[in-house]
Amino acid sequence: MKILVADDSPVLRTAVSKLLQADGYEVVVAEDGVDAITKFYEERPDLVLLDVQMPKLNGYVVCRLLKEDPVAAVIPILILTVRTSAEDRYWGVKSGANGYLTKDALGEELLVAVKSALASQALRELTTGVDLSTPATGEADVLTRVCEMLDRKLFEATVINEITAVAMKPIGITESIEEILTSLGRLITFDAAAVVLIEAGQMETVTKRALTEPDKDRFIELSAEHLARHDKNATLPPSKTTVLFDDTVAENDRGWETFHSVPLRSRGQLVGMLAFGMHQPGGITEAIVATTRTVTPAIVSVLESAKDFQAKLTSEARATFSSLA
Predict the structure, then answer these.
(1) Band of the pLDDT at 148, cuts 50, 70, 90?
(2) What is the pTM of this model?
(3) Which residues pair with 78 in a beta bridge?
């Protein structure tokens, strides 16, 4: 088993390397953050030990970059640092690290953590292969990836802010869903999109142009199939369709070559589903998958806010009728 040790201190690199080698591991070392990413793709390690305070790129950025790569993300990363604050531990977890150790654990505790992380990874590899086929060659390539990651994070934050802003409006569930899907329609190229709410018995669908009846029926069928995948006991409620952006009447049904769904969960429970349909094949890109995965918590929050607002209006209406009676 090969372990990459990234630390700017030659003393600590040597100490950790000797400890791991004595336990039978092959060790590769890196002196800074850029070197760590380059060595990662060159050496294909089974686990990474990352210091936080390193030149060029700190350990948090290195961890986040590797975890942003779907292929590299499966490799366990343990933060090994002198930083002990709750803030640092929190940011380590949020950066994607699989564990957080302080350097006073340079002994049996470190070896136990390494063995545990490798054992967990071995179980995952029984069902998913690991092929690190996206090499980073040199500092310029690594820094380019940093810029791409930062741009992606800014994009995601902007999208989330736009969706979250819907929760501030005094509108009900139907209007909130339409605003959410309208916002997503500016970001994702779909021909139809829907939000399904299980408890409310509601399915709102937005299309970019009118659909034929066969297309509508097939979209509903696919939505039902995908909802059953997320929860076999869930049933699809009646669908309401709103045409936005273009009201051109469709003359021919084109079929749904691509269909993608994301479960909506609140407090661990499935509350609904977000679904997209495209007429063209291959319409679901990695960027779309990443965007939908990022925005679903914000969507759930907006829908819960709209539900509370709608319940409040209903309660006030009932109180008014009671007083009149």
Answers:
(1) confident
(2) 0.61
(3) 49, 99
